[in-house]
Amino acid sequence: MLALEARPDNAGGGSAGGAGSSAGASSLAGVSSTAGAGGTACSCDKSESCLLGKCVPAQEHGFLALAVGAACMLTVDDSLWCWGRNAAGELGLGDRQPRAVPTLIDAQLRFREVTSASGETFCAITTDNALYCWGGNPNGALGTGESAPDRASLAPVDEQHDWQTATFGSSHACARRNDGAWWCWGRNADGELGLGDKEDRPRPTSLVDSQRFARLAMGWGHTCALDQEGALWCWGRNDQGQLGLGDSQDRSEPSLLSLNEDFVELTCGNMHCCAIATDASLWCWGSNSDGELGLGDAQPRSVPTRVGTASWLSASAGAWSTCAVDEMRRAWCWGNSPSGVYATLEPTDRLTPELAADSADFRAIATGGDLACGLRAAGSLWCWGANRAGELGQNDFADHPLPVEVMFAAP
To answer: 61-116 pLDDT, tens per residue?
Structure first.
C-alpha cells in the first residue's frame, strides 16, 4: 500500500481549505519576502504565503481535489492518482472511461498540489513548478488557449516553471507565480476574473495588484480572496449575495468586505463561501437554498454570518453543501445531501451542522458535488456520499453514506 501524505497543521490551528481553495504542500528552494499585517515582513518559502505576519502553507488542500463525480489525490511520494467520472477526460488518463479505484497519472511526473472545483477540470503543479491542466475546457478553462471542448491528457498551461499555487472555480481559474502575482483565465461573463471587464480569457492574464492576496477561492461565477492582513475581498457574480458585500450587484474588480474579523482560511462552493476567523469561528454567506450556510434556515445572506458558536479547524464548501472539522477533530456537514453524507443515513438536506462521521481523528476535509472525503490523523483517506461513477474509490458503484477507506495500490 502507498502511504498518504498528512499535511502539517497551519497557523490557525489545523489544516483547512476547500474545493475552491485546493493547494499547498511541500516547501521549495528559495525565499520570498512579503509584507504581513501592519507591514511586518515575512521571509517565506516559495510555496508559502505571508498571512498576518506569519509564513503559512499557500493553501491547505493541495493533496486532494474533488470535482463533479471525480477525485484526484497526491501520495507521499508526490505521485498523482485519480478516479471516478471521466466523461470529459478529467482523470487525465488519455481516455474517457471511468475508474472505480485510484489510478496512477503519468508516472514520469511528480506533483506537489492538485486542484479542482464543481466542474470537470483539474490542474496540478509539479515539483519543478510547471502547471498542467486537463479535462473540461468550457470558456477556455484549461488556460492553454486551445478551443477543443475537453482534453483527456495533461497539458502544460505554458512553458514556464514558476508557478506556486493554483485554485479553480466551475469554469475559471487563477494561479500565482513566484513573484506573488496571480494570473487568471477562463470564463469571465460575470467579471469573476477581476480584470474590470466581462471577456473570457483562454490564457492566463495578470490580475492587477494581486500580490496582496495570500489565498483565493472560487465558485460558480465569483471569486473571493484573503489578503496578507486577513481581510476578505470578492468579485464576480452576486445575485445570491455570494460576494458578501451586503447587496446583489456584480463586481468586475476586487472589492473589500467591511468586517471586524481577521480571517485565516477561505473556501467557496457554487454560490456560497465560508471563512474561518483567527478565533476559530466560522462565517458563511451567499446562497442558502439547501441550508449550505448552516444557519438553521434556507434564506441567503449577503454578508458573512457566524455559524453557531463552535471552534473549527478546517472547512470546505461544496457545490450546495459545506463540511467542516471542529476542534475535537470531528467531521460535520450541512446543506444538500442527495446521497446521504450524515451519520443518520438519511439523504435529506440539513439546515445546521450535523455529525457526518462517528470519529474524532479527522485532520482535514473536502467536499465535491455529492461526496465528501476526510484525511484522518494517521494519513488514511476516507470518503462518503454518491458513487455513481466510482468516485468513492471502492471498486463499486454503490453509494456509501458512511465513510469508507480509499485504498491505494503500489504502482
So the answer is: 478 999 989 999 999 899 999 999 999 999 999 999 999 999 999 999 999 999 99
Edge to edge, what strands does the sheet with 70-74 contain? 64-66, 70-74, 80-84, 99-105
Name the 3-class secondary structure at 185: strand
Cα distances (Å, whole numbers) of residue 162 to 48, 166, 194: 14, 12, 22
Which H/E stretch holds residue 48?
strand 48-51
Query: Is residue 172 within 8 Å of 139, Cβ to Cβ?
Result: yes
Rg for the chain, CA atoms, rounded:
19
Please tell me the distance from the alpha carbon of residue 237 to that of residue 365, in angstroms, as a whole number: 26
Minimal CA–CA distance to 174: which of 145, 137, 135, 131?
131
Q: How many CB atoms lie within 10 A of CB 231?
A: 18
Nearest C-alpha neighbor of 33 from the set 14, 11, 48, 16: 48
How far is residue 246's CA from residue 45's CA, in Å, rounded to a whole number? 37
At 350, the amino acid letter reads: R
Q: How far apart are CA 190 and CA 380, in angstroms?
A: 39
Whether the Cβ atoms of residue 202 and residue 155 lie closer than 8 Å to each other? no
Query: Which pTM does this prediction carry?
Result: 0.86
Q: Categorise residue 86: left if φ over 0, alpha if ψ from -120 to 50, beta otherwise.
A: alpha
Q: How far out from the chain centre does Cα 148 lie?
A: 25
Residue 205 in contact with residue 195, Cβ under 8 Å? yes
